[in-house]
Design brief:
It is built from 7 helices and 14 strands. The protein folds into 2 domains: 4-141, Fructose-1,6-Bisphosphatase, Chain A, domain 1 (2-Layer Sandwich), CATH 3.30.540.10; 150-262, D-Maltodextrin-Binding Protein, domain 2. The radius of gyration is 17 Å and the shape is globular. The chain is of the alpha+beta class. Strands 3-4-5-6-7-8-9 form a 7-stranded mixed sheet, with helices on both faces. The relative contact order is 0.14. Helix content is 35%, strand content 27%.
């Protein structure tokens, strides 16, 4: 039987070591290193080399495991245990020198997320949790906020940057949230947004157009911190369904009902 607490602790070490590599690479990074995978979707040698390091270390940690990765440095295969990895969440921030970017590592057993690590590199903050074990930030237990209503909530979102098919309802929802909350923030890293919900800095987060590696780790950390996570319909298809809502348990019902009105 796998000890998920031990696995998670070791993944934190792996993430921190790779985070040091990202900071070192930032000193050598040049704008000529930027490639565009698709509209406004950037990648560089840093993303790829970071992912290669993570794949190698996670394979050694859990031999025989599969991977779902962003930069395709290994063939994506879903096994009994599958790592869901974003080696640099917030690439656009990274290439512009904006200090909010993360390493996000989730572990799935079958179809369930059982462990998650989000390492926010610049603040050296490692958020992590495992199924049934709670959530932590640098060794200290964390909980979602106790904010009781949407009007008292500070929210986070991400702006669509390539999929504009749902832009109109998104902007209508954004306008509503601006007018009926303490405000809306956009960090540029979904992994950081989710981690901040887990520790109570944000009361809620929503976004569409995301991929599994953006949300796998953070969604587990939120749930283990007492929060709720769903797709825009209130269902469970947030990992592969390209939409996610998360918040503390007190504000969730109000939050999801507002989102349903616009989507």
């Amino acid at each position: 039987m796998i000890d998920f607490e031990n696995i998670t602790s070791r993944v934190c070490t792996i993430a921190r070591n790779t985070g040091e590599y990202l900071l070192e690479s930032l000193q050598r990074f040049k704008t000529d290193d930027i490639l565009e995978k698709s509209l406004n979707n950037f990648v560089s040698w840093v993303d790829k080399s970071s992912e290669q390091q993570l794949v190698e270390k996670l394979t050694a940690l859990l031999p025989g495991s599969g991977f779902i990765v962003e930069e395709n440095t290994i063939e994506n295969q879903h096994h009994e245990f599958t790592w869901v990895v974003d080696p640099l969440d917030g690439t656009t921030n990274f290439i512009h020198g904006i200090p909010v970017f993360c390493i996000s590592i989730g572990l799935m057993q079958g179809d369930s997320i059982v462990s998650g690590v989000v390492h926010e590199v610049n603040r050296d903050e490692c958020f992590y949790g495992w199924k049934g074990g709670g959530s932590f930030l640098n060794g200290v237990p964390i909980r979602v906020s106790a904010t009781p209503s949407l009007k008292d909530s500070l929210l986070a979102t991400g702006f669509p940057y390539y999929d504009y098919n749902r832009l109109d309802p998104y902007l209508d929802l954004f306008r509503y949230m601006m007018q009926h909350s303490h405000g809306v923030r956009r960090l540029g890293s979904a992994a950081a947004d989710l981690a901040y919900v887990a520790c109570g800095r944000f009361d809620g987060f929503y976004e569409y157009g995301l991929s599994p590696w953006d949300v796998a780790a953070g969604s587990l950390i939120i749930r283990e911190a007492g929060g709720q996570v769903s797709d825009f319909s209130g269902g469970e298809n947030f990992l592969f369904g390209k939409e996610i809502v998360s918040s503390n348990a007190l504000v969730y019902n109000e939050f999801i009902e507002v989102i349903k009105k616009f989507f």
